[in-house]
């Protein structure tokens, strides 16, 4: 909105005595300025609204009065008294601020619309899941297949839309891989559609699995978002994209504003979610943020770079897949299920090894930074 208001002021003041006074309004034409404004706005809004949101969630009794499935399976009882009753659904704060701030500072285009719509859909799915757990309408929340159907439906909608629109069809029909400057395959819409599906659904669920310790999921999301602030800006700039020999996507620069808003909103949420957490994001936040990262990666034609940048999320998801698969295999073959890890997802494995919660989170942050550096190195090592 600010961009369009600035353009209106510049146009109406042209040739008048107000033109010199309003010359500074030209700053709103620059993506870097609007991205910084979005980040600062989201941060301040989050810090201001955070206590109000926490108080509101407490008033509604939207507290986590249930034990996480992983905690039950791994017998993590030491943390139960402190965490029980902590308000959840804090992801509402992130989603509301993220969407409203992006609408204020971004120049609206189809890429922004797709991203914001997807965040709302996934947040709604997560809210439904959290609500069932809180009200005990379903002890396990929404059924896994229901969540998967919604996520897959959303991913397929995005993929088909991009494929059918001539300006964006290359995002689906051409396959790009990190550290290589040319598409490894062209004219493979089916493969691209499958990759889009795996990226969005996988990212959404991987962040959800990571959300098990105070500050872990949101902190790692912030680090990955910094990577995508850089990647979206470069993808939207034709000259820089050509110089670095990365895909140029018209309009992708506005996703920089979205990613910056996600950083601002995430920093504000981390203020209240760091150990000991005053609020949890719940599936409302984790499904939406994970999906947002996946969607942005698809829209700038770098879905596989997300696998590197979000390496911590990948490790968390893979640990669950391996643990579940190995347990089922050994139970079928030997009659007794065996485990590869002390507990899954991976962060709980280290808790069982007597790492303090803050140690696990900090060390995972360090690991996430290393993955982020490797992902950014793909810009020059091609």
- The percentage of residues in β strands lies in under 5%
Report the order of strands and helices.
HHHHHHHHHHHHHHHHH
How far is it from the N-terminal to the C-terminal residue, by CA? 38 Å
Q: Please give the largest β-sheet.
A: none
Percent helix, as a range, is: 55-70%
Poorly predicted sequence stretches spanning 5 or more consecutive residues: none
* Structure annotation, total helices: 17
Radius of gyration from CA coordinates = 22 Å
- Structural classification: mainly alpha
Any idea what the shape is?
globular
How many discrete domains?
Answer: 1
Number of strands: 0
Mean pLDDT: 91
Keywords:
mainly alpha; 382 residues; 69% helix
Quick structural summary:
The chain is mainly α and 382 residues long.
Blueprint of the fold:
Blueprint: H1 2-13, H2 31-59, H3 69-74, H4 80-83, H5 91-105, H6 110-134, H7 144-164, H8 170-173, H9 189-210, H10 216-236, H11 238-244, H12 254-273, H13 282-299, H14 303-309, H15 311-334, H16 346-352, H17 357-377
Helix pairs in contact: 2-5, 2-12, 5-6, 5-12, 5-13, 6-7, 6-13, 7-9, 9-13, 9-14, 9-15, 10-12, 10-13, 10-17, 13-14, 14-15, 14-17
């Amino acid at each position: 909105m600010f961009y369009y208001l600035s353009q209106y002021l510049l146009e109406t003041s042209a040739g008048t005595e107000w033109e010199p006074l309003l010359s500074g309004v030209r700053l709103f034409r620059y993506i870097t300025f609007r991205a910084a404004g979005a980040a600062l706005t989201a941060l301040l809004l989050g810090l201001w609204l955070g206590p109000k949101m926490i108080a509101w969630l407490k008033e509604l009794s939207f507290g986590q009065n249930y034990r996480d499935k992983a905690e039950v399976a791994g017998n993590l009882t030491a943390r139960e008294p402190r965490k029980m009753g902590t308000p959840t659904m804090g992801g509402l704060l992130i989603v509301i601020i993220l969407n409203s701030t992006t609408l204020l500072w971004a120049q609206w285009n189809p890429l922004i619309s797709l991203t914001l719509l997807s965040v709302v859909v996934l947040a709604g799915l997560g809210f439904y899941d959290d609500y069932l757990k809180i009200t005990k309408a379903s002890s396990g929340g929404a059924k896994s297949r229901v969540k998967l159907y919604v996520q897959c439906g959303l991913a397929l909608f995005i993929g088909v839309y991009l494929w059918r629109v001539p300006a964006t069809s290359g995002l689906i029909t051409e396959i790009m891989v990190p550290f290589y400057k040319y598409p490894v395959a062209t004219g493979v819409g089916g493969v691209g559609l499958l990759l889009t599906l795996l990226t969005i659904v996988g990212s959404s669920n991987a962040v959800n699995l990571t959300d098990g310790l105070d500050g872990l999921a949101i902190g790692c999301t912030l680090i990955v978002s910094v990577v995508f602030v850089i990647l979206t800006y470069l993808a939207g700039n034709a000259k820089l994209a050509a110089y670095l020999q990365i895909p140029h996507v018209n309009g992708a620069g506005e996703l920089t504003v979205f990613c910056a808003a996600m950083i601002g909103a995430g920093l504000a949420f981390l203020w209240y979610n760091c150990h000991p957490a005053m609020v949890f994001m719940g599936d409302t936040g984790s499904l939406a943020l994970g999906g947002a990262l996946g969607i942005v990666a698809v829209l700038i034609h770098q879905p596989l770079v997300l696998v590197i940048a979000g390496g911590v999320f990948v490790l968390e998801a893979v640990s669950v897949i391996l643990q579940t698969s190995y347990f089922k295999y050994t139970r079928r073959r030997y009659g007794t299920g065996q485990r590869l890890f002390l507990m899954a997802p991976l962060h709980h494995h280290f808790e069982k090894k007597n790492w303090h919660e803050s140690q696990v989170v900090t060390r995972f942050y360090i690991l996430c930074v290393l993955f982020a550096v490797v992902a950014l190195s793909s810009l020059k090592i091609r």
